[in-house]
Amino acid sequence: MLETALWDGDPEQAETAAASLLEAGIEPLALVQHILVPTMTRVGEEFQCDNIFLPELMMAGEAALRVANLVEKATLKAGKTSAALGAVVIGQAQGDMHDIGRNIVSTMLLAHGFKVIDLGRDVPASAFLEAAQREKASLVGISALMTTTLPTARRTINLFKEVNLQGSLKIVVGGGAASAEWAEQVGADGYAPDAASAVVLCKRLLEQPG
Ligand code: B12
Question: What are the boundaries of each domain within the chain?
Fold first, then answer.
């Protein structure tokens, strides 16, 4: 069962269970919305409450990533990815090697119909810019879990301002080191504390003109 494999942090088992569900006809996005995201949200909550520990969290994150990759392939194969809601370029601020939370955000955005270009960990400002221009992104998401990576996240935002791109696209920030106050201070367009509110924020920002 997929939920159990995720809780057990068993990437192989999770991939096999997800593949069976997809073969049985479950919609890829339903799999993400109804199984992957709720399970990983609970895993995150259990971790915050010290009911599970770092190794479990990391293995669950690895299993979730495998499933997310499989879902993405299935979605693309079915020709169902639409950029209807726009493309989001997302990544971890330069110097930041954490990626569990950002993976959850990426998967949630994908599940809600965004085209997601996840640049991974340790992303330099120039790589955010290059990807945003190449993909004609509507949104850029920067994740920073460490106070030491707030300056690099800020550098990325400044680069977008320098090339005069912020305005035609929106920049959102998240991760444990970021906050609504910091987002405002550095001129980001928004901050969200978790994956569900990241989706709400991104949708709201796209509705705003300019
Ligand atoms: C797991 C973990 C690790 C793992 C990472 C594994 C991985 N593959 O990701 C490992 C062990 C590798 C690691 C390494 C380090 N870590 Co660490 N790590 C953590 C830990 C315990 C949990 C992070 C996590 O995954 N949380 C669960 C997920 C689900 O939550 P989340 O990341 O917050 O994401 C949610 C939201 O923030 C939001 N979100 C996230 N990204 C984005 C992006 C956008 C755009 C939006 C809108 C929202 C959003 O949505 C997510 C889902 O709801 C945190 C402690 C903590 N409480 O955060 C420390 C923590 C982040 N680590 C810390 C440190 C210091 C380090 C190391 C430097 C340790 C060391 N001395 O080597 C290295 C850094 C390596 C590097 N250069 O990045 C510190 C940072 C302190 C600080 N304030 O600067 C923390 C806070 C621990 C602490 N209390 O000291 N770490």
Answer: 2-77, 87-207
- For residue 207, the tally of other CB atoms under 10 A from its CB is 6
**pLDDT tier at 18, thresholds 50, 70, 90:** very high
Per residue in 106-143, pLDDT (tens digit) is: 877 887 778 899 999 999 999 999 999 999 999 999 99
pLDDT at residue 81 is higher than 60: no
Residue nearest to atom 21 of ligand 1 (CA): 54
Indicate which residue's Cα is closest to atom 35 of ligand 1: 101
Whether residue 195 has its Cβ less than 6 Å from ligand 1? yes
pTM surpassing 0.90? Answer: no
Distance CA(18)–CA(36), nearest Å, equals 10
For a pLDDT cut of 90, what percent of the chain falls above it? Answer: 61
Atom 61 (ligand 1): residue with closest C-alpha? Answer: 145
For residue 67, how far is its CA from the centre of ligand 1 (angstroms)?
A: 21
146 Cα–ligand 1 center, Å:
7
Task: Give yes or no for residue 156 having a pLDDT over 60.
Answer: yes
Quick check: do 2-77 and 87-207 share a fold? no
The DSSP bridge partners found for residue 170 are 139
Strands 170-174 and 139-143: parallel
Superfamily of segment(s) 87-207: Cobalamin-binding domain (3.40.50.280)
- Contact predicate 192/201, CB 8 Å: yes
* CATH 1.10.1240.10 corresponds to the domain 2-77: yes
